[in-house]
Design goal:
single chain, alpha+beta, 2 domains, three-stranded antiparallel β-sheet, two-stranded antiparallel ribbon, 33% helix, secreted, flagellum, FlgK, cell projection
Length: 109
């Protein structure tokens, strides 16, 4: 059972689908397919067993943290590189400019 929905019972199996999360459209989530109500998202905390549960746990506990750390490292590197790059001059004597363009952070609810 997931989110109160029986996914498998005896020889009957219900369909699930992968789709964008309503909270963060860049993140894929699992939904229960209900012909009458449409796709109903299943909270990840309820999908904590089996292969799918293992993958979702890995994503939320390990992969997300690693991606965040890597992003922070890239930002620190770009910032330090830009700081050094702006101290120099090019072959024509023009003052150096930022080498990397750093976009604004995006926060999803």
């Amino acid at each position: 059972r997931a989110n109160g929905y029986t996914l498998e019972q005896g020889s009957t199996a219900r369909q699930v689908a992968a789709g964008p999360s309503s909270a963060d459209p860049t993140r894929t989530t699992v939904a229960y397919v209900d012909e009458a109500a449409g796709n109903i998202e299943i909270p990840e905390k309820l999908l904590n067993t089996g292969s799918l549960g293992g993958l979702l746990t890995f994503r939320s506990q390990d992969l997300d943290q690693t991606r965040n750390t890597l992003g922070q490292l890239a930002l620190a590197f770009a910032d330090a590189f830009n700081a050094q790059h702006t101290k120099g001059y090019d072959a024509d004597g023009n003052k150096g400019k930022d080498f990397f363009s750093i976009g604004s952070p995006v926060v999803y609810s």
